[in-house]
Amino acid sequence: MRYLIIFFISILSFTVNAQNITGKTISDGSALPYVNIYLKSTQKGAVSNDDGSFKINNIDAGTYTIIASFTGYQTQKKTITISSNDVVVDFNLPESELLEEVVVTGTLKAVSRLESPVPVEVYSPAFLKKNPTPNIFEALQNVNGVRPQINCNVCNTGDIHINGLEGPYTLVLIDGMPIVSGLSTVYGLSGIPNSLIEQIEIVKGPASSLYGSEAVGGLINIITKLPENAPRFFADSYATGWGEVNLDLGFKTKVGNKANLLFGTNYFNYNNPIDNNGDNFTDLTLQNRISAFQKWDFKRDENRLFSLAGRYFYEDRWGGEMQWNPSYRGGDQVYGESIYTSRFEFLGKYQLPMTEKVLFQFSYTDHDQNSVYGNVPYLAQQRIGFGQFTWDKSLKNHDLLFGVAARYNYYNDSTPATVGADEVVIPSLFAQDEIKLNDKNTILLGARYDYDKRHGNIFTPRIAYKFKPTSDDIFRVNAGTGFRVVNIFTEEHAALTGARDVIITEELKPERSYNVNINYLKKFYTKSGAIIGLDASAWYTHFTNLITPDYDTNPNQIIYDNLNGKAITKGVSVNLDAIIASGVKVLIGGTLQDVSQTENGIKQRQILTERFTGTWAASYKSYKYNLTLDYTGNIYGPMRLPTLGEFDPRRKNSPLWSIQNIQLTYDGLANFEIYGGVKNLLNWTPNKGNPFIISRANDPFDKTLDENDPTDLPFDPSYVYGPNQGIRAFFGMRYSFK
């Protein structure tokens, strides 16, 4: 009898302490069926019925996080406490914001991505987390039509290609300020803490009418977080099997009643020389880098803008023969390429205290580089100051933007081509009118005038047309011109490294380009509940006076001159962004392009430009187990490679190659994420199928070179089209306190 009483008491105790959760799931006032509802860190869950109702039975007393998720709708989380009564929890899920992000880069105004007459691609911090990298340069490897190009086997510096155009044709902005250019085109895309990035906006096509001569092929705008939107404290660190260590730290705080401060720092270290391909040269450049970033946001009357930001960056990197150390720096005994970079940036924006919306933006950068390539020193300084006033005015169906800007550029280096410091101030005027013809048709007219004392008057017009037949369809046409002044040694790393002589045959004329881009954006809803975003583009760019390096005429020289003919870049690209099931997201992109030069009637493909590329990022989220699986990768078609003439045994064209990565993330702990995975799953490196990568690696100073023997190749580390780093595991942790 006693055991029977104990049994009934146990049943009664369970009944008292185990309660039920009931509720409804709705969206926009209507019932939303088939929503997944579950309690985090438990096995308990349910699926809502046709009328949106759900019930989870027998929940023990305690505090829980309850989560509701459904394909095409934003996931919601709520904290509930179970005691002695049943709990009622209702969810109102808004639709997913797929294709509806706010963008500012295309027109210098904050608008919905679907409303912008200029196509803008947007990538969030969640995209960067799918394949964690120590810098923005590597993070862009999974963006369709954008390729980080490594330009040197030894020091591993590179630039960003957009739609087949070389890195100098792409302008890189931070918070809308053009502070990554010249020297930093090659060396400055590192050290921006990824944890501080709000989003990355990419414009493919001409943007010179708003941003000046460097935005010929497109631009990348890295937008940092507002202090009020950042976590109170965050930390993100990971290490790889090669010995790479990356650390991001940051915090935000209030300073008085009028200011918010955001601080972040990035540290990266790699000090483990590896030579897997056996040429006695480092496969990956050794690096020691630190960057500190600070951003202030000030509260003003009528919500007027005022923010200041600054960043300091220092890096020591070297690559070369495995026995190299700093005592050999600049000598001709052991080959090494050593680069010390010191750089600081300051930028801000201030809205004038007046009725009209007038904004003043400004930036200043100071970049100092002390480097040697073997026994060739390259000492360079660049200072860039930029100021810009914009007036934003709306009149009936006209959305007007007027601007006046000035750019100060100082550049000096130790090369024979630079006789004295180059110092110039370029004033600019620009105007833009976005005309809303009706609900479906919009036209944008823009023009920019620059005066460069070296080249006189520069005029770059722009026109865009947007047709929006439905709320989920948009068709755009953009056309414009570009103008660019070239500095060989800040943009072409091959001019400094290796043993080839640099020949400039004439005074180089500025390049000009004419570009047209057609874009179609569409959002699909399937009967199964999936949402698919389609973003398709076609483009055509025609260059005159193109300046390119000639590697073919003489294997011992790199010859620079203006192309006596034309250069054409054309292609098509497609992106598919889909939410196809609860917890399943896929982003797939492909680009097919033809980049060629025609001189004296002979057409030739551009060196180091792929015929096609594909990228993907697939994610599966198991809410039940708090796990996310990310599979990312890219694939590249053949590209013509810079060989040393007909006697060079290395491949003349690259094979089909792919870099693929996989990652597993666990977020079941409060404020913590634990992640790990494998990079370069296929263990692909450029030495596959090649007799060697670096020509004459055994005699990098060409001390025994027979110049009369064409089969005796000189030292050349510029034969590179992908990373030399093979397969490696990584493991990391994130902590974020809101």
TrEMBL record:
Residues 260-681 form the TonB-dependent receptor-like beta-barrel domain. Its main location: membrane. Gene3D superfamilies: Carboxypeptidase-like, regulatory domain (2.60.40.1120), TonB-dependent receptor, beta-barrel domain (2.40.170.20), TonB-dependent receptor, plug domain (2.170.130.10). Residues 1-18 form the signal peptide. It is a multi-pass membrane protein. Keywords: Cell outer membrane, Membrane, Receptor, Signal, TonB box, Transmembrane, Transmembrane beta strand, Transport. It is found in: Cell outer membrane. Residues 114-218 form the TonB-dependent receptor plug domain. The keyword Transmembrane applies. Belongs to the TonB-dependent receptor family. PANTHER family: HEMOGLOBIN AND HEMOGLOBIN-HAPTOGLOBIN-BINDING PROTEIN 1-RELATED (PTHR30069:SF29), TONB-DEPENDENT OUTER MEMBRANE RECEPTOR (PTHR30069). This is TonB-dependent receptor.
